[in-house]
TrEMBL record:
This is 3-methyl-2-oxobutanoate hydroxymethyltransferase. The lineage of its organism: Bacteria, Bacillati, Actinomycetota, Actinomycetes, Micrococcales. Mg(2+) binds at D70, D109, E141. It catalyses: (6R)-5,10-methylene-5,6,7,8-tetrahydrofolate + 3-methyl-2-oxobutanoate + H2O = 2-dehydropantoate + (6S)-5,6,7,8-tetrahydrofolate. It comes from the Bacteria. 3-methyl-2-oxobutanoate binds at D70, S71, D109, K139.
Length: 290
C-alpha cells in the first residue's frame, strides 16, 4: 500500500512522538496529507483501534489514520449498540492509541449525547479529546444537522472528520442498519456531504452507501471521502479492526473482507493452554526456575 507522500521539505523537521521514541521514525500524517492524497489519487487507509498494542501494529504497518470509534461500545464494552458509550469511557482508549503511534493520525469519535445540543457542547467534548486524550482530530456524525457543531470545532483549531450515510448513533431514527442514499436519498446525501465540507471538515466518512452515489459524492467534493461499505470509488477505506481481522465472531456486514480469523487462532490457543494445564504438560522444566 503506497504511503501518503510528504508534500514539502518542511515536514522533515517534525518532532517525533515523545511518548514512543526519541529516535528518528516515520513522518506524521497530517490533515493536509489527506488533501494531497485525494489530489494525487493515492488511497487513504484507516482502521479502528481501541488499545495500545493494535495501534502499534497498525501504525507500523503504515495505516494512515486510526479511529478510536464509538464502536468500542460494542467491541470493548459489550453494549448492544454504540449509543450507551460515553466520553469518559472513550478518553482512556484514545489516550492509549495516541501514545502508541508515531505516524498515524488519531481520530477520536464523539459519542452519542456529547454534541447534539449545540456547538458549545460539541466544542467542549472535542477539547476534552484533544487535551485529555491527545487525539489529533475528532469525528462526529451527521451532515446538515451537524454543520454548526463542525464549524465551531474547526474554528477552535481542531480538525473534524464528518460521517454521513448510515450513522449508527441514529440507528433507531433510521429504522435499523439500512443502506442510505438510494433513490431520492442520493440528493440528501450530496447535500449532507457539501454541508460537512462547507463547515470545514477535512474528510468525510461515507458508511453503507451505494457505490455509484459514493463515487458521485467523491467527484463533487474537494475533501477526501472515506468509505465504509461505499465501494471502490472513494478516496480511502476504513474498517472496524475486529471485523477485518475476524475477531468479532458471527456475521459480518457484506462490505467486510476478513483478512484473518483471529477468533479461531485465539480459541485454539486457549484450548491448548487449558489442555496442557489439565494434563500437566505445562509448565515444563524449561518454564520453571531452579
Ligand atoms: O465507530 C466506528 O467504528 C465508526 C466507523 C464504522 C465509521 O464510526
Amino acid at each position: 500500500m503506497p504511503e501518503i507522500p510528504t508534500p514539502d521539505a518542511a515536514n522533515a523537521v517534525e518532532v517525533q512522538n515523545p511518548y514512543v521514541s526519541a529516535t528518528a521514525g516515520p513522518k506524521r500524517v497530517r490533515t493536509r496529507h489527506f488533501q494531497n492524497a485525494k489530489q494525487q489519487g493515492i488511497p487513504i487507509t484507516g482502521l479502528t483501534s481501541y488499545d495500545m498494542l493494535t495501534a502499534q501494529i497498525f501504525d507500523q504497518a503504515g495505516i494512515d489514520f486510526l479511529l478510536v470509534g464509538d464502536s468500542a461500545g460494542n467491541n470493548v464494552f459489550g453494549y448492544e449498540t454504540t449509543l450507551p458509550v460515553t466520553v469518559d469511557e472513550l478518553i482512556p482508549l484514545t489516550r492509549a492509541v495516541a501514545r502508541a503511534v508515531t505516524r498515524a493520525l488519531v481520530v477520536a469519535d464523539m459519542p452519542f449525547g456529547s454534541y447534539e445540543t449545540g456547538p458549545s457542547e460539541a466544542l467542549h467534548t472535542a477539547v476534552r479529546f484533544m487535551k485529555e486524550a491527545q487525539a489529533h482530530a475528532v469525528k462526529l456524525e451527521g451532515g446538515v444537522r451537524s454543520r454548526k457543531q463542525i464549524s465551531r470545532i474547526v474554528s477552535a483549531g481542531i480538525p473534524v472528520m464528518g460521517h454521513i450515510g448510515f450513522t449508527p448513533q441514529s440507528e433507531h431514527g433510521l429504522g435499523g442498519h439500512m443502506i442510505q442514499g438510494r433513490g431520492a436519498g442520493a440528493e440528501q446525501l450530496i447535500t449532507d456531504a457539501l454541508a460537512v465540507q462547507d463547515a470545514g471538515a477535512f474528510a468525510v466518512v461515507l458508511e453503507m452507501v451505494p457505490s455509484g452515489v459514493a463515487a458521485e459524492v467523491t467527484e463533487r467534493l474537494e475533501i477526501p471521502t472515506i468509505g465504509v461499505g461505499a465501494g471502490p470509488g472513494v478516496d480511502g477505506q476504513l474498517m472496524v479492526w475486529t471485523d477485518f481481522a475476524g475477531m468479532t465472531g458471527g456475521r459480518v456486514p457484506r462490505f467486510v473482507r476478513q483478512y484473518a480469523n483471529l477468533r479461531s487462532v485465539l480459541t485454539d490457543a486457549v484450548h491448548s493452554f487449558k489442555n496442557d494445564v489439565d494434563s500437566g504438560a505445562y509448565p515444563g522444566p524449561e518454564h520453571s526456575y531452579e
